[in-house]
Amino acid sequence: MNAVKNLFVLYTGGTIGMLQSACGLAPAGGFEARMREQLDAQGTVLDWCFQELPPLIDSANMRQANWLAMGAAIVEAVERGHDGVLLLHGTDTLAYSAAALSFLLLGLPVPVVLTGAMLPAGNEGSDAWPNLLGAVTALQQGVAPGVHLYFNGQLLHGARASKLRSEAFDAFAELPRRREAERAAKIPAGLDYRTRRQPVNLAVLPLFPGIAAGHVQALLDSGVQGLLLECYGSGTGPADDQALLDVLRAAHRRGVVLAASSQCPAGHVQAGVYAASSQLLATGLVPAGGMTREAALGKLFALLGAGMRQEEVEQWFGVDLCGEMAD
Predict the structure, then answer these.
(1) What are the domain boundaries of the chain?
(2) What pLDDT score does 275 carry?
(3) Rounded Cα distance, 166 and 175, in Å
């Protein structure tokens, strides 16, 4: 882990830099000067370059196009010689972006740290500057290559973090999910940070008592290329609903990638434990193991967005690529 000496700061908007508007808090420019003042007051000695990524957004408006733009800006900065990246981002979808970038930037030789704030930098008692300055300090001390999330004094794995609280400063954590999977010996061809991606039609659907085949069919009819089905417990679902099973099986035959994750915060999908799990997975669902929703969605996006065929996506979805599935 090398200490970062030439930092690239990418500002995407979010609460950290918001200012009051007639409609409430809204993303605002001019954050570079505010950040420079804080770093100077802290006595931070560091070469750094700041870039706004237009349009500045509330992260509730995050889309796949924003992920692609962030990834492209980061790769370009690293190719210019920056040896570390700090990405300033809103908290609502911070964990989703950290997970997506973990897979979009596979093999990037420098660390990328995402952070944000629960309160704007101008508010009394805000966590904005402690989070920003803490992330900068961590990068100066040395962070391993890969994507990380820094919040409330903790450096978290980018593909393991989730937002658990909407008002407290310790909003993010790594869920205690069981992680056992085969590790990829190397980054698969066509999946590293140089790979061009395109948007993908993805959907997430939690199972619930009373879910009907028609609900799932309507979602699939929207042109979904990949569906993350959030199952109960260790991967169970309504295995006595033949119509539902038939809908999933037909979608898989059409080329839709189907993945199964657990709704439980500490869940882990396992095949063969319950008959209800086995029958559901037999429709073509690929177990997500202990991946979080954010990680599973980001991984599907990176694999399908790279143009991989259904069987290739299913193969690599079940293999640990960056620590998302294995310790």
Answers:
(1) 6-174, 202-317
(2) 64
(3) 16
Residue with tokens 């202990």: 290
Cβ neighbours of residue 165 closer than 8 Å, sequence gap 6 or more: 171
Q: What is the mean pLDDT of the chain?
A: 95
CATH superfamily for 6-174 is L-asparaginase, N-terminal domain (3.40.50.1170)
| 92 has binding-site annotation | yes
Task: Give the model confidence (pLDDT) of 259-282 as tens digits.
Answer: 999 999 988 897 766 666 788 889
**Catalytic annotation present for 44:** no
Among 91, 195, 283, 292, the one annotated catalytic: 91
Q: Which of 15, 115, 283, 292 is catalytic?
A: 15
Asked if 6-174 and 202-317 have one fold, the answer is yes
Per-residue CA distances from 287 to 1, 31, 89, 131, 219 (Å): 33, 42, 30, 35, 20
The answer to whether 12 is a known catalytic residue is: no
- Is the preceding peptide bond at 109 cis, omega within 30 degrees of 0? no
> Which fold is adopted by the domain 202-317?
Rossmann fold (3.40.50)
Task: Please give the structure tokens belonging to residue 215.
Answer: 């609900």
